[in-house]
Write a structure and sequence with these properties.
Layout: E1 9-15, E2 17-18, H1 28-36, E3 51-57, E4 60-66, E5 70-71, H2 81-89, E6 100-106, H3 116-124, E7 134-140, H4 145-150, H5 152-160, E8 165-169, H6 176-192, H7 215-229, E9 237-244, H8 250-258, E10 278-284, E11 287-293, H9 308-320, E12 327-333, H10 340-351, E13 361-366, H11 376-382, H12 385-393, E14 398-400, H13 410-425, H14 439-471, H15 488-496, H16 505-513
Parallel strand pairs: 1-4, 1-6, 2-5, 6-7, 7-8, 9-11, 9-12, 12-13, 13-14
Antiparallel strand pairs: 3-4, 10-11
Helix pairs in contact: 7-11, 9-14
Bound molecules: guanosine-5'-triphosphate (GTP) and magnesium ion (MG).
Magnesium ion binds near residues 250, 273, 274 and 293.
GO molecular function: GTP binding
Keywords: Cytoplasm, Endoplasmic reticulum, Golgi apparatus, GTP-binding, Mitochondrion, Nucleotide-binding, Repeat
Protein name: GTPase IMAP family member 8
Length: about 525
């Protein structure tokens, strides 16, 4: 049954994000397939380009455009150019303009407060009138109205869309009624918009298709491949240091290189896992590999804001694999938008190792699954100059790792060949760490001071606990004070619950109420 307001043609664009590390998809392609009643969009691999599909659905001609997702907490400025341009291109596939945008969000996802502004920036890039054309589509296996009602942030989202939302059971493809109801909700919305679809601002037109494989991108790839062919003799001993921002997949890359899980990855309840250097070895493809893992910096933080202890650890890394590493792998996750502040943070933190370090550095792009069907070269071309400058600083040496794919061993062998080629260029010499001061001694000293402070702190905690036991407070009010960017909110979250990285505000409220 269709409503009185039924349209003969409906044009839909699917939009949505991914969780903070780009791992969990929102379910746009699956949604598109359920609407069209066939496997029109590829699932199981990240959608990297806007794709159009159409069909007859319950008496209407339906056009659906699937788009790449952004990271929920990343605004437009922090989204890689390639993804941003593809999202914008979706509108050109939907001429003369879309009737509806389905904002796809898994009902179980934690859509925290910090994602509100980035979401607004992503959507309003397409049009400032977009909100009148959006239905929030909660992908789910069972409708969870209560969960939505309990979440201030989800309610904010639904409110922005004038209370338009729909639950789509993604495990129940055969249930036509949920698609019919969704189409009717879209028709209702179009009627409220006086029958109008969204006129896309002319300014954002980006052409029909992004050029794939420009001459420059192809040339870059050829130069890189030629490097590998030049390797005549394999090395028997290679020392590697991994360096990069927090949660960039440094430890995962280390595990992939060594072919075993020796570095800790993603300990729950913490924002970062590696807090001090770790060293491990393995025999891989007839080479003895030594890998040093390091703590990361917060990705666009100036080096001055990185704690001294972390800076010392980073400096210590090159001393740990005496007499020095053959290669420093600079880890850059593919979903990083390398704008100026991020670029500066990378250069300054690399500077901790000394100025000559760049001759021994290879950029290792991680999270290769983000590439989908695109190539790293295409993406480098689309980014602004900072990424290109960084790669050039490393002598055009780069490589891609997908740590989720443990079966593809060529990614490690090719990396080793690139390292060997670089070693040949460096006359087989390793990087010689600058010795103006020994970070290992400095760390010892710092640890001694920390130990003294810890003893003091433990005594203070003991006194507070004794006091609390005596007073038996029914309610405790705490004010967190500190200079800017010292993660006060995180301390508060740990005191209150200590579970999630960014618990929604209402969780905090409920604890505060208690
Ligand atoms: N999608 C995807 N996720 C990945 C990949 N590699 C690692 N991850 C995930 O990224 C998260 C961070 O990985 P880690 O290896 O712990 O990163 P790290 O840089 O060592 O993190 P810190 O030690 O906390 O600085 C983990 O949840 C990994 O499972 C990848 O290739 N693709
Ligand atoms: Mg780590």
């Amino acid at each position: 049954m269709t409503s009185d307001k039924s349209l003969s043609k409906i044009r839909i664009i699917l939009v949505g994000g991914r969780d903070v590390f780009g791992r969990e998809a929102s379910g746009k392609s699956t949604t598109g397939n359920i609407i069209l009643g066939r496997n029109a969009f590829e699932v199981g691999r990240r959608t990297t380009r806007s794709v159009k599909a159409e069909g007859e659905v319950h008496g209407r001609h339906v056009t659906v455009v699937d788009t790449p997702g952004w990271v929920w907490c990343c605004s437009v400025e922090n989204t890689p150019n390639f993804d941003r341009l593809e999202i914008m291109r979706s509108t050109t596939l939907c001429q003369p303009g879309p009737h509806a945008f389905l904002l796809v969000i898994p009902v179980n996802s934690n859509f925290p407060h910090i994602c509100r502004a980035p979401l607004e920036s992503q959507l309003e890039l397409l049009s400032d009138k977009i909100w009148k054309h959006i239905i929030v589509l909660f992908s789910c296996v069972a409708p969870l109205k209560k969960k939505i009602k309990e979440s201030q942030d989800m309610m904010w989202l639904v409110g922005k869309c004038q209370n338009r939302y729909h639950f789509l059971n993604i495990k129940s493809c055969a249930d036509c009624s949920q698609v019919v109801t969704l189409l009717e909700k879209m028709e209702e919305m179009v009627a409220q918009n006086n029958g109008h679809y969204l006129q896309i601002d002319k300014g954002i037109s980006v052409g029909d298709k992004q050029d794939t494989g420009s001459a420059k991108a192809n040339r870059r790839k050829r130069v890189l491949q030629a490097c590998i062919r030049d390797v005549k003799q394999h090395k028997t001993d290679i020392r590697i240091v991994l360096i990069g921002a927090v949660q960039g997949a440094k430890s995962s890359a280390g595990n992939l290189i060594l072919g075993k899980k020796v570095f800790a990855v993603n300990r729950p309840k913490t924002l970062r896992t590696t807090v001090c250097c770790a060293i491990n070895q393995a025999k891989v493809h007839n080479r003895r590999l030594t890998v040093v893992d390091t703590p990361g910096w917060y990705y666009n933080y100036p080096v001055e804001k990185t704690p001294e202890m972390d800076k010392l650890e980073i400096r210590r890394s090159v001393h740990l694999c005496a007499p020095g590493p053959h290669v420093i792998l600079l880890i850059i996750p593919i979903l990083t938008c390398l704008e100026m502040t991020v670029h500066t943070a990378v250069e300054k933190h690399m500077g901790l190792l000394g100025e000559k370090v760049w001759n021994h550095t290879i950029v290792l792009f991680t999270m290769g699954d983000w590439l989908g069907d695109t190539t790293i070269e295409e993406r480098i071309e689309k980014e602004d100059k900072h990424l290109e400058l960084l790669i050039e600083k490393c002598g055009n040496r780069y490589h891609v790792f997908n740590c989720k794919n443990h079966t593809d061993h060529t990614q490690v062998t090719e990396l080793l060949e690139k390292i060997e080629e670089m070693m040949m260029e460096n006359n087989n010499s390793h990087y010689v760490p600058e010795m103006e001061s020994n970070p290992c001694l400095e760390i010892d000293l710092m640890l001694k001071t920390t130990k003294t402070n810890m003893t003091k702190m433990n005594r203070q905690t003991q006194i507070i606990q004794e006091l609390l036991r005596e007073i038996k407070l029914a309610e405790l009010r705490i004010v967190l004070l500190g200079v800017e960017d010292t993660w006060k909110f995180m301390a508060g979250n740990i005191i209150l619950r200590g579970e999630s990285l960014f618990p929604p505000k209402e969780v905090l409220h409920s604890f505060l109420k208690k």
